[in-house]
């Protein structure tokens, strides 16, 4: 390998070349979202496999087609399409690709009904989000505005039939490799990562991680309706950050040469990156504890203290962020939840 080493370890080109030697190629697909491009990965094996597809847009389809052509393939050649999780920037094109190629569509078993009934599932997600936002102090007019924004995004997704259900821990056998399927919920309830472990051959061990771990941004553990929850779900609030931290610790314990994420650059030192993320969450929980200790507050009031107007324009994202950290404090018994007139406030113990 010849590319330069930076203080952060080997550079992006070196790491992409390492993946390419293992037959895994990053295809960078445009999205209309703030996150920017999404990474699909082409695995040149048998079956010819694509991990994630990009959003449902002509521009994404066009660029995907060009990226495949640059490697000598057409959409019709894809034989297996794997969906990593329930976010539309990752699976929106899957139905078009499956129709044109006849590819098998593989996803976590618990995710299959969500993908099949995507429109209904997205509607239930929005209803759940609305309920959470009102309960945690976000004004009704902001909630209404955000629901409209969310509905307008839905067209970038598309329902797709999963023809091959995957189970946590299962091995997915390709001609030249075995992918171990691992459920790592947190960023979303359906996050699935795929381990291509070639260490016994003296080759790199590669984790296809989607949004479970991203180098340049901390993967927001969004508050999400549990998979398979009843339409009128009213159970205990899902604890996305608690789940996410548990998932991160499992990944931290793995021996990996390379992590290929759903956005941005490959990661060569996942342990150091995960340690930075764990530290960040710990610090943020302490800061939020300080605010709650000063006065009982709703999650939205905490978000306003921390982020000002961003807590309005990105109300659900910032609410998820606050609730995630409050869940850590609740688990440690340092904070209690008090409900009055349908609105929840948090108070220090
Ligand atoms: Zn995602």
Give the integer mean of the pLDDT values.
Answer: 94
Intertermini distance: 56 Å
**Residue fraction in strands:** 15-25%
Q: Given the structure, what is the number of helices?
A: 12
Strand order of the largest sheet: 3-4-5-6-7-8
Bound molecules: zinc ion
Q: Rg from C-alpha positions? A: 21 Å
What is the N-to-C order of secondary-structure elements (H for helix, E for strand)? EEHEEEHEHHEHHHEEEEEHEHHHHEE
Query: Considering DSSP H and I runs of 4 or more, what fraction of the residues is helical?
Result: 40-55%
Number of separate strands: 15
Q: Stretches where pLDDT falls below 50 for ≥5 residues?
A: 1-6
Largest β sheet strand count, sense and barrel closure: 6 strands, mixed
General shape: globular
The secondary-structure class comes to alpha/beta
How does this model look, in words?
- The chain contains twelve helices and 15 strands.
- By secondary structure, it is an alpha/beta fold.
- It has a six-stranded mixed beta sheet with strand order 3-4-5-6-7-8. A five-stranded mixed beta sheet has the order 9-10-11-12-13, with no helix packed on it. It has a two-stranded antiparallel sheet with strand order 1-2.
- Strand 1 and strand 2 form a beta hairpin.
- Helix 8 runs antiparallel to helix 9.
- The termini are far apart.
- Residues 1-6 have low confidence and may be disordered.
- Zinc ion binds next to loops.
Quickly describe the structure:
The protein has helices spanning 12-21, 58-70, 88-91, 94-101, 112-116, 118-135, 140-153, 240-252, 270-294, 299-307, 310-313, 315-331; strands spanning 5-6, 9-10, 24-29, 38-43, 49-51, 80-82, 104-108, 164-166, 171-173, 178-183, 192-197, 205-210, 258-261, 335-340, 343-348.
């Amino acid at each position: 390998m010849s590319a330069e080493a930076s203080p952060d370890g080997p550079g992006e080109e070196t790491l992409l070349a390492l993946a390419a030697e293992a037959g895994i190629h990053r295809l960078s697909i445009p999205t209309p979202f703030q996150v920017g491009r999404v990474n699909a990965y082409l695995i040149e094996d048998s079956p010819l496999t694509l991990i994630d597809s990009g959003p449902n847009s002509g521009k994404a389809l066009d660029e995907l087609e060009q990226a495949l052509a640059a490697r000598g393939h057409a959409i019709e050649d894809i034989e297996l399409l794997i969906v990593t999780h329930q976010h539309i920037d990752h699976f929106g094109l899957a139905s078009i690709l499956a129709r044109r190629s006849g590819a098998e569509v593989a996803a976590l078993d618990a995710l299959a009904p969500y993908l099949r009934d995507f429109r209904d599932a997205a509607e239930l997600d929005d209803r759940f989000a609305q309920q959470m936002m009102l309960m945690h102090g976000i004004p009704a007019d902001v909630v209404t505005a955000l629901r409209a924004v969310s509905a307008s995004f839905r067209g970038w997704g598309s329902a797709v039939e999963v023809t091959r259900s995957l189970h946590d821990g299962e091995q997915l056998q390709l001609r030249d490799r075995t992918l171990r399927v691992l459920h790592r919920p947190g960023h979303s309830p359906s996050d699935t990562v795929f381990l291509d472990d070639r260490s016994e051959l003296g080759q790199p061990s590669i984790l296809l991680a989607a949004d479970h771990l991203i180098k340049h941004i901390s993967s927001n553990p969004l508050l999400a309706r549990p998979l398979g929850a009843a339409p009128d779900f009213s159970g205990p609030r899902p604890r996305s950050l608690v789940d996410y931290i548990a998932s991160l610790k499992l990944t931290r314990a793995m021996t990996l040469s390379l992590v290929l994420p759903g956005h941005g650059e490959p990661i060569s030192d996942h342990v150091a990156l995960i340690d930075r993320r764990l530290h960040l969450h710990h610090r943020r929980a302490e800061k939020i504890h300080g605010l709650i200790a000063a006065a009982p507050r709703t999650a939205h009031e905490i978000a306003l203290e921390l982020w000002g107007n961003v807590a309005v324009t990105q109300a659900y994202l910032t609410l998820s962020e606050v609730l995630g950290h409050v869940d850590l404090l609740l688990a440690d018994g340092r904070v209690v939840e008090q409900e009055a007139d349908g609105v929840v406030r948090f108070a220090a113990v």
